[in-house]
Write a structure and sequence with these properties.
transmembrane; Sushi_SCR_CCP_dom; eight-stranded antiparallel β-sheet; 12 domains; 1119 residues; 9 helices; membrane; Mannose-Binding Protein A, Chain A; transmembrane helix; eight-stranded mixed β-sheet; Jelly Rolls; Complement Module, domain 1; Sushi von Willebrand factor type A EGF and pentraxin domain-containing protein 1; mainly beta; 33% strand
Length: 1119
């Protein structure tokens, strides 16, 4: 039972607490939520933000939101979570580096914008396995970094990231010197994108990622670094720009890359200006590195490697000052090698030259195929940031506009109330904050009251004080709730405010402004009396006059002393206090001292008695370059001024001292007059006779040779800084237009006014030109005329042409005559001087001599008359000289004749047997050739060998047939090649010898063996001798003949001069050690492998073994 009673009490307390919470917290409201830079927030209501209201955040175009997209107003009157962050990636394609690189995982893969998690194709970074590997990106300038986002590599083949440390700072070498942004002590999953937020924005240029204290490989697929201090590409896009425009933002500038089209310098500038900017200018350092990096990345897509920049100079060969398009002088240009060269004096614009590592090159401004880069700032600022409880009243974010921040009632604005959108696209100052202030209630005052305007006591509230009737408020009537939660000033008081008549004073009168508090009673002394004390008293609160009334006393200064050459007059006729004495002087004298004296309250005149002195003028100013003459400077005196040589007097030459002590005018000045040096006289000279150019100087002129002076010979420097008269000139002495005689033509060379061209004049085309000295006139005559007289004339220094004008005389050479077997044609159908006679022959005839004759000035035709000769072909026997076996017979060498060819015995004809003489004098076709008749190889014989004499099978060659031992030849020993291409006789055979024949050969065999041994020893000696001295092969024809005569007796014939085979090799060079052990055990192919010839080629056989051994030498069998 007690348990249920306890539960009942708990429930009652909970319900009471809920009711209390509803009444206490139900009226709580949230302040307007904070908004980060480059973001906007939307609410259901901007005025009444009750619990449950959701604030939705959205970033400006091109910026990415990190954190909560929505926040909710709680019952406590605050917002859930922290405000989000809107930033743009500033690491994209910036220079990157890492501790090591393996397997194609370069550092630049980590910020190339490709967020794939697969490393295939080398799309991620990768270091080798090492202690504490790291990766770094250079942002090229300082940024306030807030967020770093990392995309890790997917599975597999590497170690996951663990103990990752991210640092942001300005040290590029010592990582640990940079402040820590984030640290992840565990292992990061593979193939994910993880966001790291710095505890506070870190300002730095370098961002490092390192696996601290871990021996591993670092592989990253993408690293993004976000800040609010840079434009997004969307912010940079100009109004009306095409969607494919290439934009980039760096160092708070927008860059537009135009690499798909070309334009001249002015056209490129115009397009940039249409987007609110100009060609890139004023860049250096990090900005220059960034632009070069972007151009290098775009290099494969550029049609030319010349890109305009906004630098140019004034046209001309001598101008060397280069200026940016904004008017600033270029101070640190980065010219390429041998640049600028100002080729042709027209290269007045600058490009980045990709062929010179993007260094500067000067080119002509009218090249209309070059790319360009625009540079400009965005026309608006991003959405401004604001803190909690603040609101922004304006929504115009264009450059030059301002926004105002406002706090809710009871809050004080701390910071800038207004911010301006600056030209750089960012807001001035920082977002202000709002602080809630409550000054509390005020204590009422006695005999008065205090009222609160609108009933508020928070910041900015006003309190107004008031008093009852006949009471005056002493103090401030208004007080305001100020910054520190305190009412400003002190509390006022209410006091009574009526006074009686003021007290009287002897010798004085009194006037009052009233009798209420604050009224004045003013005292004034009578004539001759002096007031001592304050002249007025005040009616104070409480009904009494404040202060002590003044007193009035009588004062007399006495009569002043007389003045020499002067007098005085008492203006009011008395000398008491306040009286005035005025002094004057006689003519030509002036008063030295005070003109008026007043009697002061101490019984003395205000100044000393003045005196009268003779009037004199101050020392006059002596002009520079001059002097003056004077006796004194007293009144009516006169001074005279003079100037030195070369100066002129400006002003009055004399001044007089006037009665007012001033000179009659300003002192004159002596101005130095310099007419200056005159420009050089073309084709002449100017001489200063006195060596000066000041006033009165004289200059004298003279001209060079071939020129005469036109104008004054002398000029004088005058007072108006000009030389007298006008400048003379040196006029060139020229010859008049030459007279053109009848039937003549004149050509003039060396005429400077026509740029050196030759001018041709006829009698009807003269123009009245003049010609310089040295010009040359050449006289020629019209067709049919010759020049009589000197044909050349020169313009001389007297302005006349040299010599006597020639004349033109008519010349006729008459008929040139006829030509046999041809004809003569007059080219112009005339026979006068210069006419041509053309000669040509009839068909099958050719011209011997000139084909063209001219009529000469001696009335004869040039050269001898030609003749026509018959066209023949060259004797064909001359063409076949050196051809072997070829014979030719010709019927005639005239056109149409034939040449018949044949060959000698043993040769066959290849080509045309007959050739015809053509009209051009050449034989048709090419001469034939005679080819030797070849009987070809006769083939092999069974059980024997065929030897080809001299290795030739052509007509007349012979072949021998030899049989192996135990075999005998049946048929001819020798066959010859006949003219029909066949071998003579029948082909012999080698047949086996019967036993009877073998027995009959036993004795010769024994003799042969003995002879063979002797011959073998001789051959060995020959080999030794030939090794020391090579023998010269000699053709051995008689041995063959001897072998033919002694064929039946098996005689052996040997020539010691032919110990070389047919290829020039020694007969023993190719003999191996085992050859004599088995001479017939190897095939012919095996013998060839050792470098030996085949049966048909060999001239030597190795010695055989056996009872019937036979050695053949040069085709002769030796037993």
């Amino acid at each position: 039972m007690y348990y249920y009673l306890y539960l009942y009490i708990i429930c009652i307390e909970f319900v009471l607490l809920c009711f209390i919470g509803f009444f206490v917290l139900g009226d709580r409201r949230c302040g307007h939520p904070a908004v980060p830079p480059n973001a906007k927030v939307s609410l259901a209501s901007d005025t009444d933000i009750v619990p449950g209201t959701v604030a939705t955040y959205e970033c400006d175009d091109g910026y990415e939101l990190f954190g909560a997209h929505q926040r909710e107003c709680t019952l406590r009157g605050d917002w859930t979570s922290e405000p989000p962050f809107c930033g743009t990636n500033v690491a994209f394609r910036k220079p990157a580096n890492q501790s090591t690189t393996v397997r194609g995982g370069s550092a630049s893969n980590g910020n190339d914008g490709e967020k794939t998690t697969e490393h295939d194709g080398k799309r991620c970074t990768e270091t080798q396995r090492e202690a504490s590997p790291w990766w770094q990106v250079d942002l090229l300038r300082h940024y306030a970094v807030k967020v770093v986002r990392v995309t890790t590599r997917g599975c597999c083949g590497h170690q996951p990231l663990q103990d990752l440390e991210i640092r942001v700072g300005n040290s590029s070498s010592d990582l640990q010197r940079n402040p820590l942004c984030a640290w992840f002590p565990g292992t990061i999953d593979e193939g994910i994108t993880k966001t790291f937020t710095c505890a506070r924005p870190l300002i730095g240029q370098h961002v490092f990622l390192q696996l601290v204290g871990v021996e591993s490989s670092l592989s990253l697929c993408e690293v993004e670094v976000f800040t609010t201090e840079e434009f997004s590409n969307d912010r940079c896009a100009p109004i009306g720009a095409s969607a494919d425009i290439e934009l980039a933002a760096f160092s708070r500038n927008c860059y537009e890359f135009n690499g798909a089209k070309g334009a001249s310098f002015e056209e490129a500038r115009k397009q940039c200006q249409e987007h609110g900017g100009d060609l890139i200018h004023g860049f250096q350092g990090a900005t220059s590195s960034y632009l070069i990096q972007e151009l290098e990345r775009r290099r494969p897509n550029l049609k030319t490697l010349l890109v305009w920049i906004g630098a140019q100079k004034e046209p001309g060969l001598t101008s060397r000052t280069w200026k940016w398009v904004d008017g600033e002088t270029v101070t640190k240009p980065t010219w390429g090698k041998d640049q600028p060269n100002n080729y042709n004096g027209e290269q007045n614009c600058v490009v980045l030259d990709g062929g010179r590592s993007w260094l500067w090159n000067d080119v002509g401004c009218n090249l209309d195929y070059l790319h360009w880069i625009c540079q400009y700032l965005p026309p608006t600022c991003g959405s401004p940031d604001k803190l909690l409880n603040t609101t922004i009243e304006d929504n115009d974010y264009h450059v030059g506009s301002s926004i105002r921040y406002k706090c809710p009632q009871g809050h004080m604005l701390i910071g800038d109330k207004t911010r301006e959108c600056k030209k750089d696209g960012f807001w001035s100052g920082a977002a202000p904050s709002c602080k809630y202030i409550n000054c509390g209630g005020l204590t009422p005052i006695q005999d008065g009251s205090v009222d609160l305007v609108d009933g508020h006591t928070t910041y900015g509230a006003k309190a107004i004080y008031s008093c009852k009737e006949n009471y005056t408020l002493v103090g401030n009537a208004e007080r305001m709730c100020k910054d520190q939660g305190i009412w400003d000033g002190e509390a006022p008081k209410c006091l009574f405010d009526w006074c009686p008549e003021p007290p009287p004073v002897s010798g004085a009168t009194v006037t009052t402004s009233g009798h209420k508090a604050g009224s004045l009673a003013t005292y004034t002394c009578q004539n001759g009396f002096i007031l001592f004390g304050s002249p007025s008293i005040t009616c104070n609160l409480g009904g009494t006059w404040g202060g002590t009334p003044p007193s009035c006393k009588y004062v007399d200064c006495g009569t002043p002393a007389q003045v020499h050459k002067g007098s005085f007059r008492l203006l009011n006729g008395t000398t008491t206090y306040g009286s005035i004495a005025q002094f004057t002087c006689e003519p030509d004298y002036w008063l030295a001292g005070a003109e008026v004296l007043t009697c002061y309250r101490d019984g003395k005149w205000s100044h000393d008695i003045p005196s009268c002195e003779l009037i004199s003028c101050s020392d006059p100013e002596v002009p520079t370059g001059g002097y003056m003459e004077a006796y004194d400077y007293n009144v009516h005196s006169t001074i005279d001024f003079h100037c030195e040589k070369g100066h002129k007097l400006i002003g009055e030459p004399s001044l007089t001292c006037q009665p007012d002590g001033e000179w009659s005018g300003e002192s004159p000045k002596c101005e130095y007059v310099d007419c200056g040096k005159l420009p050089p006289l073309p084709y002449g000279s100017a001489e200063l006779l006195n060596g000066t150019t000041h006033l009165g100087s004289i200059i004298q002129y003279s001209c060079t040779t071939n020129y005469r002076l036109v104008g004054p010979v002398r000029r004088i420097c005058t007072e108006d800084f000009q030389w007298s008269d006008s400048s003379p000139r040196c006029e060139e002495i020229r010859c008049p237009e030459p007279i053109v005689a009848e039937n003549s033509i004149v050509s003039v060379t060396g005429n400077d006014r026509m740029h050196g061209r030759t001018l041709i004049r006829t009698r009807s085309s003269t123009q009245g030109n003049t010609y310089r000295i040295g010009a040359l006139v050449k006289y020629r005559c019209e067709r049919g005329y010759k020049v009589v007289g000197e044909s050349l004339s020169t313009c001389e220094d007297n302005g006349q042409w040299s010599g006597v004008r020639p004349k033109c005389q008519y010349v006729d050479c008459g008929n040139p005559g006829r030509i046999q077997n041809g004809k003569v044609t007059l080219a112009t159908n005339a026979t006068y001087y210069g006419a041509a006679a053309l000669y040509e022959c009839d068909e099958h005839w050719q011209l011997d001599g000139v084909s063209r004759r001219l009529c000469q000035d001696n009335e004869t035709w040039s050269s001898e008359a030609p003749v026509c000769k018959e066209i023949t072909c060259v004797d064909p026997s001359i063409q076949i000289k050196g051809s072997i076996g070829l014979l030719v017979v010709t019927s005639t060498l005239s056109i149409g004749g034939e040449a018949h060819y044949r060959c000698e015995r043993g040769y066959s004809l290849k080509g045309n047997e007959t050739r015809t003489c053509l009209p051009k004098g050449q034989w048709a076709g090419a001469p034939p050739v005679c080819i030797p008749i070849d009987c070809k190889s006769p083939g092999t014989v069974d059980n024997g060998r065929v030897i080809i004499s001299n290795s030739s099978t052509i007509f007349g060659s012979s072949i021998e047939y030899h049989c192996l031992p135990q075999y005998q030849r049946v048929g001819p020993f020798l066959r010859k090649c006949l003219d029909d291409g066949k071998w003579s006789g029948e082909e012999p055979k080698c047949e086996l010898i019967t036993n009877e024949a073998a027995e009959n050969g036993a004795l010769p065999l024994s003799v042969g063996v003995g002879c063979g041994i002797v011959l073998f020893l001789l051959m060995l000696l020959g080999v030794i001798y030939l090794r020391l001295r090579k023998a010269t092969p000699v053709k051995n024809t008689e041995n063959i003949e001897g072998a033919e005569r002694k064929e039946d007796q098996n005689a052996a014939v040997m020539s010691y001069a032919t110990l070389h085979d047919t290829n020039g090799r020694h007969i023993y060079d190719h003999v191996t050690d085992n050859l004599y052990d088995s001479p017939y055990g190897e095939s012919l192919a095996e013998n060839s492998a050792y470098g030996r010839r085949s049966d048909t080629e060999s001239a030597y056989e190795p010695e055989p073994t056996g009872p019937n051994a036979v050695v053949t030498i040069n085709g002769v069998a030796v037993r």
